[in-house]
Amino acid sequence: FTRSLSITTPEQMIEKAKGETAYLPCKFTLSPEDQGPLDIEWLISPADNQKVDQVIILYSGDKIYDDYYPDLKGRVHFTSNDLKSGDASINVTNLQLSDIGTYQCKVKKAPGVANKKIQLVVLVKPSGTRCYVDGSEEIGSDFKLKCEPKEGSLPLQYEWQKLSDSQKMPTSWLAEMMLSVISVKNASSEYSGTYSCTVRNRVGSDQCLLRLNVVPPSNKAGLIAGAIIGTLLALVLIGLIIFCCHKKRREEKYEKEVHHDIREDVPPPKSRTSTARSYIGSNHSSLGSMSPSNMEGYSKTQYNQVPSEDFERTPQSPTLPPAKFEYPYKTDGITVV
């Protein structure tokens, strides 16, 4: 039944990059014996074995149906405008990783039937490659040169080159020129320069540049001492702030305690001037009833008892009027005439 109709395109594997367009060929020949209607059908067997074969595009009854498979809707088309001429090839545009799988082309024209399979592999080009130095770029130090693409399908190939000073790569690096990482031991100033790293896979390549500048060692002791001094000064400043805050809180607490100890029902103390005057007035009354012989000693004794702190100023002795006596009078048993 298949002798009359045959597909001339051999089975093959096609590799394309993500985002590109894949051309899947399917050319066939007919014979005069094939008189039935022409039917062309493309199916996909996804890489996920859990999914069954699904139709992605169909030509039948002189019409094209391309909405069978949602993942490829709008991205799969016949390449020929005249399918009866013997070309059933298709294009799959804007390739995605989900498009990976086995595609099968089936051609029917009674009594002839034929089919061929094409394996499609979608790869990701290397992109977003970054070159950098991992470590300190100082003379005598050890560090690494790294080349890392952001994305890219495996396997990946690397190639390092030195672009500046017309110098070749150091001999010790030759064994690692095809690796993503170059380990540098006991670096010298001769290693300084501009380097390139090229990353490749089967569908594309990407490149990055690296400027290496090997310099004398920095004064680490001075940096460490400066860091220590700065830390100590910061600690001292923090200590002073804490001390001042603590002192202020103690003063506020003391003022509150003194304020609460004052009773509102205690009358204010009498003024010192009033106290002194009252004291003097009472002594004046006492003196008026004393005899002249006792007046001097009594006044001295009484005035000496007045507390000095009860006066705002030193009180003056009161001026007493002279005592009048009628003669004769008696004192201590003696009659005075």
TrEMBL record:
Bias class Basic and acidic residues marks the residues at: 254-267
SMART domains given for it? IG, IGc2, IGv
The answer, when asked if Signal is one of the entry's keywords, is yes
The residue ranges flagged as biased composition, category Polar residues, are: 271-307
GO BP annotations, alphabetical order: homotypic cell-cell adhesion
Q: Which parts of the sequence belong to the Ig-like domain?
A: 18-119, 126-213
Q: Which GO terms describe its molecular function?
A: cell adhesion molecule binding
InterPro entries for this protein: EJ_Adhesion_Regulator, Ig-like_dom, Ig-like_dom_sf, Ig-like_fold, Ig_sub, Ig_sub2, Ig_V-set
Q: Where in the cell is it found?
A: Basolateral cell membrane; Cell junction, Adherens junction; Cell junction, Tight junction
What's its membrane topology?
Answer: Single-pass type I membrane protein
Q: Which Pfam families match?
A: Ig_2, V-set
Major location (coarse): membrane
Q: Where are the transmembrane segments?
A: 221-245
Q: Give UniProt keywords alphabetically.
A: Cell adhesion, Cell junction, Cell membrane, Disulfide bond, Glycoprotein, Immunoglobulin domain, Lipoprotein, Membrane, Palmitate, Phosphoprotein, Receptor, Repeat, Signal, Tight junction, Transmembrane, Transmembrane helix
Question: What are the boundaries of the region Disordered?
Answer: 254-326
Give yes or no: UniProt keyword Zinc: no
GO CC terms, sorted: adherens junction; basolateral plasma membrane; bicellular tight junction; intercalated disc
Q: What does this protein do?
A: Component of the epithelial apical junction complex that may function as a homophilic cell adhesion molecule and is essential for tight junction integrity. Also involved in transepithelial migration of leukocytes through adhesive interactions with JAML a transmembrane protein of the plasma membrane of leukocytes. The interaction between both receptors also mediates the activation of gamma-delta T-cells, a subpopulation of T-cells residing in epithelia and involved in tissue homeostasis and repair.
Protein name from the UniProt record: CXADR Ig-like cell adhesion molecule
Q: What is the lineage of its organism?
A: Eukaryota, Metazoa, Chordata, Craniata, Vertebrata
